[in-house]
Design a protein that fits this description.
The protein is an alpha/beta fold and 400 residues long. The protein has two domains: 1-298, Aldolase class I (TIM Barrel, Alpha-Beta Barrel); 315-399, no CATH class. The protein is 46% helix and 13% strand. The chain is built from 16 helices and ten strands. The strands form two sheets. Strands 1-2-3-4-5-6-7-8 form an eight-stranded parallel barrel, surrounded by eight helices. It has a two-stranded parallel ribbon with strand order 9-10.
Length: 400
């Protein structure tokens, strides 16, 4: 009893510290929720590589997998033990004691303060009636039993109401209050089917903060899906209203339209510190390489228009933009490539390009860039078939 009391005191002190620091903790779920994206299956070795890259980037915690779902998840988690040391490793569990036991076994050997479980249970009328066939009282009884059980095995326990954003606010607050009472150190707020707008997300945060009397004893995490294309905006709205933890995936991969993209949330917070006034510990220069690693290992290509790591972020074909970028990169960039670890600015030569860009590329190749040659090259580019790329080899041909 004394040991348990000491542990509880320590946990509350840590939670209090996090809340007072006003910092945002990044919790990555690429290895679990992200992998649920059709075609994004990862082998155990791939997961370890991504986990190590996430560790280097500075994420606070990793959703390492769902041990009760497959042996491959268990194997991947086991390979992380003693290798991925800095982030907290958590396992997803249904509100079933067998799932908690499976997580306990998978995380055996991980430092006590670096292991945890994330429990979830459907709370909305749709889930209660059509999926679980449970009453509100039965849901509360399940939460009480399983969160109490999980807290006896793990110092870090998160509970999330699945389909929270379609749950009655009063009942959701009741579920979270009970979970915290039973030992949950984090309560997660997932927009499971991505139906929120930023205004509604902010209102939900205010509702939870006002309606959960013991929320001072737990962190509040948000987990947004992208079905309206608003996952990042909704996450930022929750941050503005006091969320402590943001759960994201690299590249925004995940179920259906995906999740809030870690790199997009991070760059928005980083570039708008005056607005959000929230600090966080991420190495911004690791973001673009991290996105490329996940794309390579999952086989899910990065859209050219994707922020941070998309090819077009720092590329332009338009002559006016090229001229401005050559004079000062900040004229047509929201942030420099090096800020996120991306490659330099790319001047794409095509029908919209101007003289300055052609001259710049010729100089880079060690070729003469007199006005006559530049004009001739632009004339020849105009005659090229649609879609033909003017790479180094093609430019040398055109210059000859």
């Amino acid at each position: 009893m004394l040991l348990k009391a000491i542990e509880t005191t320590i946990k509350r002190a840590v939670i209090g510290h996090h809340k007072r620091s006003n910092k945002i903790l990044f919790s990555d779920t690429t290895l679990r929720d992200g992998e649920q994206m059709p075609g994004a299956t990862l082998e155990p070795d791939d997961k370890v590589k991504i986990a190590l890259a996430l560790q280097d980037a500075g994420v606070h915690s990793l959703d390492a997998g769902f041990p009760a779902s497959s042996e491959a998840d268990v194997e991947a988690i086991r390979r992380m033990i003693g290798v991925v040391r800095k982030p907290v490793l958590t396992c997803l569990c249904r509100t079933v004691t067998a799932d908690i036991d499976a997580a306990d076994k998978a995380l055996k050997g991980q430092a006590s303060h670096k292991r945890g479980v994330s429990l979830f249970c459907g709370t909305s009328p749709l889930h209660r009636e059509h999926k679980l066939n449970k009453t509100k009282d039965e849901i509360l009884a399940i939460i009480r039993e399983t969160v109490t059980y999980a807290s006896s095995k793990f110092p870090i326990v998160s509970f999330a109401g699945e389909d929270a954003t379609r749950t009655e606010p009063d009942f959701l607050c009741q579920c979270y209050e009970l979970a915290i009472e039973c030992g949950a150190t984090t309560v997660g707020f997932p927009d499971t089917v991505g139906v929120l707008t930023p205004e509604k997300a902010a209102e939900w945060m205010r509702t939870l903060r006002a309606g959960i009397p013991n929320l001072d004893k737990a962190l509040l995490a948000v987990h947004m899906h992208n079905d309206y294309g608003l996952a990042v905006a909704n996450t930022l709205a929750c941050v503005a209203e006091g969320a402590n933890v943001v759960q994201c995936t690299v590249g925004g991969i995940g179920e259906r339209c995906g999740n809030a993209a870690l790199e997009e949330v991070a760059i928005a917070l980083d570039m708008n510190r005056d607005q959000y006034d929230r600090d966080f510990k991420l190495d911004m220069a690791k973001l673009a390489p991290l996105c490329r690693l996940v794309a390579d290992l999952t086989g899910i290509a990065i859209s050219p228009m994707k922020p941070v790591a998309g090819r077009n972020v720092f590329a332009t074909e338009a002559g006016i933009h090229q001229d401005g970028l050559l004079k000062n990169p900040d004229t047509y960039l929201p942030y420099r490539p090096e800020r996120v670890g991306a490659e330099g600015i790319e001047f794409v030569l095509g029908r919209h390009s101007g003289r300055k860009a052609v001259a710049h590329r010729l100089t880079e190749l060690g070729l003469e860039a007199d006005d006559g040659r530049v004009v001739r090259i632009l004339d020849r580019i105009e005659e090229l078939p649609k879609g033909e790329v003017v790479d180094e080899s093609r430019l040398r041909d055109l210059a000859g």
